[in-house]
Design goal:
This protein is of the alpha/beta class. It is built from nine helices and ten strands. 33% of the residues are buried.
Amino acid sequence: MVALITESVCLDNHIDFAGGIEKAIERARAYCKENGKDFKIEVEVRSLDDIRRVMAIGGVDRIMFDNFTPELTKEAVALVNGTMETESSGGITLDNLRKYGEAGVDFISVGALTHSVKGLDKERDRAFGIFAEDKAVEYYISQGYAIRERNWRFHHIEIDIIAQTGNVVVFVEVKGRSGRDMAAVDAVTVSKMKNMTRGADAYLKRLNGDYEYRYDIFALTGDFDDYEVEVFEDAFVSPLLR
């Protein structure tokens, strides 16, 4: 997904940690400026008042309505009035998808599209996922990283690999996609980004010391004996905790 590589997404947990919407946006801007990144900024909001605050500070490219009803979404779209892109996320199913589209948003995130899909060969998919993780471990070790954790869990959240080089802790999402009809990196969703940042927050709080960190995506597409690897370092941004 291009959005993962080119956007800074301020999710609700980032905003809470930063101390509010205004500070979250300011930190996202500062990160982009300090690191020479030309990222677009997307902010997740939970109310009409949140939208007004985002519009007051400005400098945001897209606004995500989190768990809005279709009726509230329509009000939100009218309030934004075309000043930035709009997206609906949370609580959207194939049954109510049309209502959200009719509310006028530019983008809709539908978890049901992936939640309800059953693999034709689950065992093969599982084996290929393990194969991709093995290759990711080999890659990071070859680059001089130490592997701190593999399949680390925090409640329902799982982080595939946690590696370290010097003072930098790297949280790695591994995606293996059998076949070439869809790139593995395209399977990394906004929901996955949310879970990774929450898991990373929990992990970092357990460490003693002041660590830098980043999020990587290791994408392996193809087959067991014929595959391509793409490694996206600093693939998406959680600037609020840096």
